[in-house]
């Protein structure tokens, strides 16, 4: 797709006279739009049985929850670790659903003060599940208060300041903490050791992602071929969140250009429009690979130089692009910088040199 010039002829489209205000058009009623939003939310599975993938985690978690139900006690605290988009929040919702308990949700960055956490803990009912997303980003005072809450179901609230300060112990109801983190290494040792069960979420294979896409298409009422579902799954970076997002974009393309049915050709054409290639690389990923291969002869190149070449911040290249490019075998990290592999050279349509990694 080339760049549009300023003198491109503009075409005006007139609305048919039959289209009145939004309230008179049944296709544009807010109630219908809200209903579609509710369908999108229903993509999350509601039970361990419906959860696709993560077989080992599901088996282990089923034992933890089943044992707690048999003893009629709150299960041990659960830590869900893994890259974003693999279903950690969904798993927390399922834990509460399996236990028949209420779910209270917050995030690590939102707990800036110990008082924020104390207010939330004191309002918990017995058996409730407290979910803290990105738990490694909690403020230190709140984290230290959480230690006693997790072990003894008690918190100490400090009233006053200076020599006259008084510690008031407050008993809290037994609860289950579910923490989610994308960086397990950033958790402090005392916090990590207080979790009774740690689940490491893994990237999905194409087969499981195809099932995710097929299930989501059924919920959304989208007609899709099995080959098209596999095509979308293969470009989803092993991540269900990306697979569901690509499915919605392909659905948009199919509604406009293919009467709503998604065939493999429609899926490929749609993903081409949205800049997702056969390997799952998007525009920025390809720009990094091109800069490394064509601009710097395959490296080694520092991340700052790569970021400057593609017009992005170094943190964006390092945190957004590199994890998948390394996992896909496109680049390697060395003490001297980033180096393009054989796969990267071939992805750019070039013959790799003899010293390229991967030969």
UniProtKB/TrEMBL annotation:
| CDD domains according to UniProt | AAA
Family listed: Belongs to the RuvB family.
The name under which this protein is listed is: Holliday junction branch migration complex subunit RuvB
Keyword DNA-binding present in the record's keywords: the answer is yes
| Region annotated Head domain (RuvB-H), chain positions | 278-359
**Where, by residue number, does DNA bind?**
333, 338
Q: Where is this region: Disordered?
A: 1-33
Q: What does this protein do?
A: The RuvA-RuvB-RuvC complex processes Holliday junction (HJ) DNA during genetic recombination and DNA repair, while the RuvA-RuvB complex plays an important role in the rescue of blocked DNA replication forks via replication fork reversal (RFR). RuvA specifically binds to HJ cruciform DNA, conferring on it an open structure. The RuvB hexamer acts as an ATP-dependent pump, pulling dsDNA into and through the RuvAB complex. RuvB forms 2 homohexamers on either side of HJ DNA bound by 1 or 2 RuvA tetramers; 4 subunits per hexamer contact DNA at a time.
Any idea where the AAA+ ATPase domain is? Answer: 74-207
Reproduce the free-text note on domains from the UniProt record: Has 3 domains, the large (RuvB-L) and small ATPase (RuvB-S) domains and the C-terminal head (RuvB-H) domain. The head domain binds DNA, while the ATPase domains jointly bind ATP, ADP or are empty depending on the state of the subunit in the translocation cycle. During a single DNA translocation step the structure of each domain remains the same, but their relative positions change.
Q: Where is Mg(2+) bound in this sequence?
A: 89
Which residues does the record give as ATP binding sites?
Answer: 43-44, 85, 88-90, 151-153, 194, 204, 241
Stored Pfam families: AAA_lid_4, RuvB_N, WHD_RuvB
One GO cellular component term noted in the UniProt record for this chain: cytoplasm
**Catalytically driven reaction(s):** ATP + H2O = ADP + phosphate + H(+)
Q: Per the record, which residues fall in region Small ATPAse domain (RuvB-S)?
A: 205-275
